[in-house]
Amino acid sequence: MESYNSEQRIAELEELLRAKDIPNLKDSLRRTNPVDIEEFMSDLDNEQSLIVFRLLRKDDAAEVFAELKNEGKHRLLTSITDPEIDSIVNALNFDDVIDTLEEMPATVVKRMLKNSDAETRKKVNEFLQFPEDSAGSLMTTEFVEVKPEMTCKEVLDRIKKVGSTKVTIYTCYVTSKRKSLLGYVSLRLIVTSDSDTKVKDLMYEDVISVEAYEDQEEVAKTFMRYGFTALPVVDSERRLIGIITVDDIMDVMELEATEDFQRMAAITPDEEEYSTTSAFKLAKNRLPWLMFLMISASFTSTILKSSQQVIESIIALNMFIPMLTDSGGNAGSQSSTLVIRGMATGDVELKDWYKVVFKELQIGLMIGLVMAIVAFGKCMLFDKVGSEVSLIVALTIFIIIVIAKVVGALLPMGAKKIGFDPAIMASPLITTIVDSIGLLCYFEVAKIIMGI
Questions:
Q1: What are the TM regions of this chain, as residue ranges (predicted)?
Q2: How many domains does the chain have?
């Protein structure tokens, strides 16, 4: 049996489409993973995309549609007929329908809702009331629900009857007559138990759940902590209203990581893909932070101006300023990145701040000492600036590294304490702060040693 290779399969699809070999193209699409079909379609024009999409089987078409980027979905929905939209809406998982409606323009949403039944429209309106970043906006209602008095045979019969329309059948959720969540039971346990065994004798009652209005980032942390493949969502009265599956939470994790990287690079977060975002919008997202950092960097100029007498007395001090500021910024960025990552994964909590500071202080002392010795040797052997200037540089770099490590650890935790995103205290801002502190230390050390 030939192994599946995504690159070769996409190349094969491209060749068949160019040759207009429709029968073989249709057969190849049937054997291709929906993720690879989405990648193949992303490079096609509107007409070609429509041809390919109409060659897909109904179930495959729904899966491919769910994988498409927002631009691709919009392009497709404006090209296909109302019956085709109806077919897609009916075949899609409900959470994918909600995701699509949240991202599409009003005209497209109206067409999609027009081609859905009354029950679907009612459910859609209920789901759209949840905040965009909440657990409720991520959940689906397509899960297997059982009652405690049911036997294993009855549960299996129910799974056979409704399982094809559910996103997962591996975990069945046990509810009361009022839909209150009582527990859960795994399919493995149902299959391996006697057919007349009741669910109430098998179910796990200590079920972990999230509330519908809980923030999606907290939901992601719950998934990571417990390693779930699905998580029940309840309302304020603990009634089961949906579940969140791991594939949806992976999208959230990717989005949150992207936002953190953007903030760490001094860019206003944007959910749009880089390739589909206009140059103007990208510039608008980057400009505010760059303006802020440029203005904040004026403190560095003020420090240099106030230390003009020291600089004029020892011209050689100028040549080491870039090395000192860069070393401090890099050291601070290392600490902040690790602390931000630790807070994101739950490994570092605010109550641990003194442990984090003490650890970074130890690290700073060790790294600072090594770098100071190396800097002293460099100044003496290669720069040949004399022992006094070499000592000034060595002492300053030791102080800067220690301060940078502590500041890099404290700022993200301080930001979280006052309600800001810790990622905004990353590389660019820490570099600016440490630069200013480093220059102050540099010239003060120079004044003391040189007696100026």
A1: 361-382, 389-411, 423-443
A2: 3
